[in-house]
Amino acid sequence: MWTRLLTPRWVLLHLLVAVLFVATFFLGYWQLTKAENGGGAVNWSYALQWPLYGFMGLWFYVRMVRVELNRDPDEEEPSSAVVLYQRPRVDTTGDPELAAYNAYLAELNEKALGQRGPGGH
Fold first, then answer.
1. Domain boundaries of the chain, sorted by first residue
2. Cα–Cα distances in Å, from 2 out to 22, 67, 96?
3. What is the pLDDT of residues 82-109, one digit of tens each?
4. How far is it, in rounded angstroms, from Cα 31 to Cα 26?
5. Considering 5, 7, 35, 85, which has the largest number of Cβ atoms within 10 A of its Cβ?
6. First-to-last C-alpha distance (Å) of the chain
7. Distance between CA atoms of 53 and 119, rounded to whole angstroms?
8. pTM to 2 decimals?
9. What DSSP string describes 54-121?
């Protein structure tokens, strides 16, 4: 179950999240030093916001990991459901050019399906 989180994609994602989480605290500290040196209310608010952004990102990441761990590993495989082909309806009313074009498209569709069928290789 946990081995899904050790694929190269997930390991890179773990590292990226860790780096970004730590970076938000450095950015918060930087804003705090600017605020203490007379930067104003904006710097004080950013000093609080950066760590909150880090925790928010971590919270979303933990949710994403939980979804991955609870996901059925076979759900990405193609299903064996039968897909029925329904012949497209050709509009013969109204515009004769449109009706001719639709008939032409239906003919092309029939040819394409005929070539992919069991005997039409």
1. 2-70, 81-121
2. 24, 12, 62
3. 666 666 666 666 788 888 888 888 888 8
4. 9
5. 35
6. 43
7. 60
8. 0.56
9. HHHHHHHHHHHHHHHHHS-TTTTSPP-------PPPP--SS-HHHHHHHHHHHHHHHHHHHHHSSS--
